[in-house]
Specification:
alpha/beta, 4-stranded parallel sheet
Length: 256
């Protein structure tokens, strides 16, 4: 984290010197969000944070640190939900600097949903071979699953427990698993991948393009994930979402 953040800061400072912006817009809660905010703030350039105010209350998450750091030095706060605005106000942020404008990711979903529905899914396994989805029809329920967070996949003990649960779930309904490179690497490292590939009801594919993934999720019966964005998308689509995390910065996905 330190190396990546430092490299971003060094490169972005040069951009600020050459472009001389009046304001820097940062998005979300990744390392570049905090890094670019720090650079701009120290150069006395205004910072606008889109997706400000989200809080998990879990400082074990690197994203929570990025959110706290960024919002501490932001000038203009764009929030995606009322609870995020309330978090900022409780932290002492002036209300006149906060603007709740809604969720761009959901705007994107709404505008692409019809196009996504026309996609013809041609999924391939991690070796590049076409996946046999002959069982899949409009009436056959299936689950979509994604995992990538270090707290879930970096520990052999935790990942072993998750693999057990995934296999149990696959006995109830088929699971389509677009796998994150980090997760694939850890499954291979801990010699757990064979347990999944030997299941006839777990279909592992590589990362999917946006429209393909949107079609896959929108037609699913269940989503199992540790992704914040997918929590929001399934909430809008009214698809049950099992969020496999001890906390979430998007509590609206639980309330709704």
């Amino acid at each position: 984290h330190a190396t990546q953040t430092a490299r971003i800061m060094e490169k972005f400072e040069a951009v600020c010197f050459s472009e001389k912006p009046h304001m820097v817009l940062v998005v979300g809660d990744v390392n570049s969000t905090a890094a670019c905010s720090l650079v701009a703030s120290k150069l006395h350039i205004k910072v606008c944070h889109y997706e400000a105010g989200l809080r998990s209350r879990d400082r074990g998450m690197p994203e929570e640190i990025n959110r706290l750091v960024t919002d501490a030095i932001t000038d203009l706060y764009i929030t995606t939900s009322d609870d995020a605005s309330e978090n900022l106000i409780s932290e002492g942020t002036p209300a006149e600097n906060i603007h709740m404008l809604g969720n761009l990711m959901i705007d994107s979903l709404v505008s692409h949903l019809e196009l996504a529905s026309t996609q013809k899914l041609r999924l391939r396994d991690i070796s590049g071979m076409p996946l046999d989805l002959s069982w899949k029809s409009e009436t056959s329920p299936y689950a979509v699953m994604t995992f990538h967070r270090p707290s879930n996949v970096d520990s052999e003990d935790t990942l072993s427990v998750l693999v057990d649960e995934w296999l149990k779930t696959a006995e109830i309904m088929p699971i389509i698993f677009p796998i994150h490179p980090r997760t694939l690497g850890k499954l291979e490292q801990f010699k757990l991948l064979d347990r999944l590939t030997s299941s006839s009801n777990i279909f592992i594919t590589g990362p999917l393009a946006y429209l393909d993934f949107l079609k896959l999720v929108s037609e699913s019966a269940l989503v199992i994930t540790d992704s914040g964005g997918i929590q929001e998308e399934t909430t809008y689509l009214r698809i049950p979402c099992l969020t496999v995390r001890p906390s979430t910065e998007r509590p609206i996905t639980i309330w709704e």
